[in-house]
Amino acid sequence: MSCSLQLKNISYTTEDKTLIFKDVNLHIKHRDKIAIVGPNGAGKTTLLKIISGLKKPKTGEIYIFDNKIKNDEDFDDVRKKIGFLFQNSDDQFIFPIVKDDIAFGLFNLGFHKEEVEKKVEYIMYKLEISHLADKSTFKLSGGEKKLVALAGILVCEPEILLLDEPTTALDENAINKICNILKSLDKTLLIVSHNLEFVKEVTYSQYVLKKEGLYSLKV
To answer: Looking at the 3D structure of the chain, how many domains does it have?
Structure first.
């Protein structure tokens, strides 16, 4: 089975040289569903940003689809195959109308208007949010925002999904809907979450991030 993502001895320090974590090693195979848990400040979001090229590690190596990532240009080559769901959905929105925001990534990928419209219509139908198409992204409920943000990622058909606290501030119904969607996806998932019940339901393996590295979580 091919490797989607591999981290070798990744470490990260802040600008004031405070060590956040060191010697993080992780091997994720194609279509694995993995969770990382840990206390606030452990660096979970930072690790996702390192994987997506938004932050640079102090040391270590990153391999995506078996290719070593050496510079920003390498990230540019693989970024279109990675979807990053932010913890705060408002930070993800570009356009004020739902259907326009979902379409944004497709236009960036060079799809024509007619194809974009079809793909957006289909993903809204799949996620059962077609009724939100003409609504303002900033007037949605927390669960609706999360689903719209997820639609904007999934419509671009990434191979790897990085999800930062996908259940934060959601009610039980919204959490269950997100859970069912993620379980149905035939994609590689790396989820950061405090919700142990949720990650046990969605992922195959769970790890805890500590300053000294990444350790298997026995749940």
So the answer is: 1
What phi and psi values does residue 39 have, to the nearest 5 degrees? -70, 165
In tens, the pLDDT along 102-132 reads 999 999 999 999 999 999 999 999 999 999 9
Q: HSE-up of 166 (CA within 13 Å, CB side)?
A: 32
User: Do the Cβ atoms of 97 and 51 come closer than 8 Å?
Assistant: no
Cα–Cα distance between 200 and 207 in angstroms, integer?
A: 11
113, β-bridge pairs? none
Please tell me the distance from the alpha carbon of residue 11 to that of residue 50, in angstroms, as a whole number.
10
pLDDT digits 0-9 by tens, 11-38: 999 999 999 999 999 999 999 999 999 8
- SS3 for the chain is CCEEEEEEEEEEECCCCCEEEEEEEEEEECCCEEEEECCCCCCHHHHHHHHCCCCCCCEEEEEECCEECCCHHHHHHHHCCEEEECCCHHHCCCCCEHHHHHHHHHHHCCCCHHHHHHHHHHHHHHCCCHHHCCCEHHHCCHHHHHHHHHHHHHCCCCCEEEEECCCCCCCHHHHHHHHHHHHHCCCEEEEECCCHHHHHHHCCEEEEEECCEEEECCC
Domain that holds residue 158: 3-216
Domain harbouring 102, CATH code: 3.40.50.300
